[in-house]
Amino acid sequence: MSNKKPQIAGTFGRFTTCLSTALVLVMLGIVVCFVTIAHNFGNTLRANVPLELMLDDSITTPQRQQIENFVHAASYVDSVRYISKEVGTQEMATAMSESPTEFVGYSPVPAEYEVYLRSEYATMDSLKMIEPQLRKLAGVTEVDYPKDTLKSLDTAIPLVTIVLLSVAVLLSFISFALINNSVRMGIYARRFSIHTMKLVGAKWSFIRRPFMGSAFWMGFFAALIAGSLVGGGIYLLTTTELFLATLVTWQVWALTLGSIFVFGLLLSLACTYFSVNRFLKMREKDVFLK
């Protein structure tokens, strides 16, 4: 009966340590998920900002073809849409519920190219270099894009990313402290066994080995629990919110679940390693006083 009590206590201790580690990893996984989704959301917003190339009414077919070839070949262009004068007039008439030709007798709407840039180039700094190149093209009268929108994105997206990353770093430190305390309590209960092995001449690496093996499996199962909870939550969100489903790419899954498993294993192993070393360095009188 007396032997069963320590076994039950040890098993319960490992279970609570595993559970507390899993809960910490859930919080960490949620933050990583938010960071990656916010990054994808910012890229989506940038990719949908149009760059409009207004064309001269007297533009020739070779000039228009030259413009089209240029924008299609540009490395910073994601997609291009040509809007003829007639189509542009029709779209404006639909938006205004009246045709602009009724006021001035002719259509003031020029033909244009709507150019959508790759997300990494849809910034004010990049457009300051891209815009002059497009203005030099023969037949282009004006280059227009929503400057205020891009300025807001350039300011807001890095700020949100920094805040979320700061929270992730803070959670990492908190995670290390919580897991370290949980692991240390478990090793503290076996400090006499560690001291006994030292007395019979066992090497430190030999003494650490079973603790490190136990820490690996504890971290693995904690990560498995946390990954299942976070993964299940992400799956439910993507099935109920279609727009969110477009933002949750395979990179989001990989980074979120990968970070949970990596941090779960590394934190458990690192905490165990340092905790065992702490008790290995203890003198005999300290073992009985602690």
Describe this structure in words.
With 290 residues, this protein is α+β, with helices and mostly antiparallel strands. The protein contains eleven helices and four strands. Strands 2-3-1-4 form a four-stranded antiparallel β-sheet. The longest helix has 44 residues. The protein starts with a helix and ends with a helix. The N terminus is likely disordered.
Order of helices and strands: HEHEHHEHEHHHHHH
Instruction: Tell me how many strands there are.
Output: 4
Rg over CA atoms, rounded to whole Å, is 31 Å
Count of individual helical segments: 11
Largest sheet: 4 strands, antiparallel
Quote the average pLDDT. 80
The low-confidence parts are 1-10
Shape: elongated
Helix content: over 70%
| Structure class | alpha+beta
Strand order of the largest sheet: 2-3-1-4
Q: How far apart are the termini? A: 26 Å
Strand content: 5-15%
Task: Please sum up the structure shown.
With 290 residues, this protein is α+β, with helices and mostly antiparallel strands. The protein is built from eleven helices and four strands, in the order αβαβααβαβαααααα. The chain has helices spanning 4-47, 61-73, 85-96, 101-104, 124-135, 147-188, 191-199, 204-240, 242-247, 250-280, 284-289, and strands at residues 50-55, 77-83, 112-117, 140-144.
